[in-house]
Structures are given as C-alpha cells and as structure tokens.
Amino acid sequence: MAYTFKPWEIPTRAKPTPESVTAHVESGELLAAKLIGIAAYQSPFDPDTDRSDPESVWYLHKRQLDDGRILYLEPMLGGTVSLCVAPDSWSISDRYCYHEHDAAWRAVLGWNGKGDPEGWYRHAPSMRRRPDFTIESEYINAGDR
Length: 145
What we know:
alpha+beta; 8-stranded antiparallel sheet; 2 helices
C-alpha cells in the first residue's frame, strides 16, 4: 500500500546509497545481544552512580564503528527505541527512531555507518520520516520544528 502524503509533508525523492549496508544478523546473535543488553540496562540502579559518566549504562547496546563513531541503542518513552550515532562518548550527532525493536537491534549490530540504516521511521536531525520504514515513503515533516 502506497503512503499518501499530507500537505505539510514534503517527499524527499531520496535514493539508497550503494555504500550503506546493514549486514545480516543471525537470530541467535540477535537474541544473545538483546538478553545481554536488557539485563545490563535493567540492573539495579546505584544512587551513588554518576549518570553523566559515559560508562554508565543508559543504553541497551553500544558498538564502535570502524571510523571511530559510536552507536548506542537507547530505549525511549512509548516503547520505541532509537539508534544514536555519536562522534564521541559525550554527544550525539544522529538519532534514528524505530517502532520495530528487531530492526533497531539489527541496525546497531550490523550497520556499517554509511548512508542510513534500515527500518527506521524518524530521523530527528533532518526531520525525515518513513511511515512504512522504506526509502520510497520518505518525506520531510515540516511540522517537526
């Protein structure tokens, strides 16, 4: 089913970049990463822990890309998750929001960091949206300001 754009939505005519790759992630690897990440995130909170410490666990999974950037999978309100791309451990340069947890986990485990990962519905910095998670439905939501 094709997405019908609303008047305040501007189609982007985006094209996939050939260098952007999300590698296949086996279901066993996906399950193991989820269990480890959720267990670490749900561990008892120590009130003496400094949450501004970059090593405190505010994320479900963390992985460093070949170019030095860091990927974080962060739980959000409402049951969604976001894939944060950080140039260092103190700032976030990109945020991809996901409804589908498996798609987010596959992105944090398998994306090579080039172009855009697969399966997201909202890219916060650019105000881009993908209502059916595909590049064909991508638009810029002018109402996101």
